[in-house]
Amino acid sequence: MKRKTLIIGGGGREAATVWMIKDSLGPNVEIHCAPGNAGMKPMAELWNVRANDIDGLCALAKKLQPDIVIPGPEEPLVLGISDRLSDLGIACVGPGAEAARLEGSKVFAKRFMRRHNIRTAAFRVFDDPKEARRFDRWPCAPSRLPVIKADGLCGGKGVFIPNDHNEALDAIEEIMVKKKFGVAGDRIVIEELLSGYECSFIVFTDGRYAVPFLPTTDYKRRRDGDEGLNTGGMGAYCPNPLITPNLHEEIMEDIVLPTIRGMAFEGIPYRGFLYFGLMIAEDGIYVLEYNVRMGDPEAAAILPLCDFDLVELLIAAIDGPANEILRNIKLNWRKNTAAVTVVLADEKYPEGRSDGETIAGIEKAKKRGALVFTAGVSSPSAGGQTLVTSGGRILDVTGIGKDFCEAQKIAYAGAEAIQFKGKNYRKDIAEHLALLHQQVD
Ligand code: AMP
Ligand code: GLY
User: Fold this and answer.
1) DSSP 347
2) Is 366 exposed, middle or buried (0-12, 13-18, 19+ CB in 10 A)?
3) Cys-Cys link to 417, which of 253, 364, 380, 404 (CB 3.0-4.6 A)?
4) Which has the higher per-residue pLDDT, 351 or 5?
5) Which of 108, 189, 279 to mutate to test the pocket of ligand 1 (most atoms within 8 A of CB)?
6) Is-cis flag, bond preceding 142, omega within 30?
């Protein structure tokens, strides 16, 4: 049966989703994107509707009548696209606005975790900057530094990890007094700083059963060696080999299922992708954050390893747990295969951007075996083939190989083949794993 999908968003995650659906369904799928990006044109029909224009998206979905709508970013979900489409009888992957508060409000997420005994960093909520500045009120020992988080959506920029107390006070000032993020900073969470290693653990759930995707690691900091500012993600690798079967079980039993049961218990059952940002610390696993969607750039590393029909999975689960489809399903993944994704960014990212630089070499990168997912790109002329830069993270370049060494080589060969003025990327994505394989080989 020919399927029609509407994908909301226009970044690398959405480009990877489009590619994956096209790769598995070929002529049996019609893909629409709102707004998409110019690099997706050969695979999808693009509609000039922004991802946060809920009325526009509903009108488009009504016109297209897709089998399924797949929102990529969090904003349309937090704004209620899922509820609105469901009122129109159109299937949409993702939680309603109330459940999307797991990402839309750090305060909601932290209190939810506390209510359901899901381990997370000790925290306190502040709505008065005077109170927030008092060290003695912080949930960490006086000699330790806290993490400061704006409550609402800040496009991945609302978390501050200060290097000293003055930076912590500056962060409070920026968020609560100078209103760097508007009302999203009316309240903040101050929490203890954890150390360990991070894992992006994404599941797909129908509100009762959950199927895990392969655990992934994302590189949040801008510069090599995890230096520099926090970003949306500068690279990723998949699967995360540190997640042993025992840890995997612990994550499912102590974190994933209690979250899904907790949401159902509170009368706001959660459906769709749910991303757990985890810190694997010496004394256990902590949830740093929930995201109500797939990760970006994680999707660019995970999706190429899928060996199942994503669209059928999403459609099958739309009716909820009653059909027990997710209970009985086991997703197939490409065996003995690793993926490494390198994000090519504009040198000014994440603090600024320089648009309009011509991008060359994508075909050359593909010839070197890499997959290239377009993110911050546009086309200077309607219908033109040329791509130019338009935003911070420009392209995701993914290498797939029999191990991390091979996957990393392909990803970097692809990254080097691509040229645009201001191209900048981390050189250490999956480096420790590639070296490990080199030694074993
Ligand atoms: P969040 O949006 O809450 O995931 O935070 C973004 C990034 O900040 C995370 O991926 C971590 O790298 C870092 N982070 C957040 N909370 C903490 C914490 N309590 N301790 C250490 N690092 C953190
Ligand atoms: N890469 C982190 C995120 O998608 O939130």
Assistant:
1) T
2) middle
3) 364
4) 5
5) 279
6) no
